[in-house]
Design brief:
This protein is mainly α. The protein has six helices and four strands. It is 78% helix and 5% strand. Strands 2-1-4-3 form a four-stranded mixed beta sheet. The longest helix is centred in the middle third of the chain and has 83 residues. The protein is rod-shaped, with a radius of gyration of 39 Å.
Length: 259
Amino acid sequence: MAKKKEATVEERLRHLYDLQLVDSRIDEIRNVRGELPLEVRDLEDEVAGLNTRLEKLESSLESINNQISDKKNLIEESKALIKKYTEQQKNVRNNREYNSITKEIEFQDLEIQLAEKNIKEFKVQIDQKKEVISETKERLKARQTHLKHKKSELDAILAETEKEETALIKKSDEYKANIEERLVKAYTRIRTNVKNGLAVVAIERGASGGSFFTIPPQIQVEIASRKKIITDEHSGRILIDAALAEEEKVKMNKMFAKL
């Protein structure tokens, strides 16, 4: 079986720059989305939090209403006991029995007063909670409307770019598979550490793309010869000549137009 021909330095540089162009295009697509996915996620969390708060407030309101019902029942029971004790007072045989029943009537009267006081306090709490519930519902409605708008915005961008992004990710993986593993690792490391994710850049006006540091003329000649892979000593980026970059851009733009 014939041995696979080893890629030349120029071919490696072209492959690396093609990969860079694909990955940069993916970056552009993701930049268009910007912070939208995070905004949508934050809004979803906020809406969920407001819904949970509403549930707790309404549950608390129900609990207070139950307590009011209990107090009203207690008042009715106390009134029934007072009526019963008042009837009993008519048939007492001595002062001791009379005083004992009187104390029971007074106790039930105090129970009624306390229950009525509690009901007033509960009604104040209900008014406060209803106000908080109303404010929470208004905020929830506003957040839901905002979320709907942001989701619609994100869905529109996704519909427009998702197909292209998926195709580009596939292309990126294909290019990586055709480049030596050590170069892919170096490219990925540089791309992670530099601004704008640019790991492979062309010489522009005597300096590496995205940098103000001038490349010495001798190094520029070596880069243009395409005989070895040269990196920028300041940023670590892989350097290519402008002509090669332009050729690959034309080729890749044609490919992007078809995606």
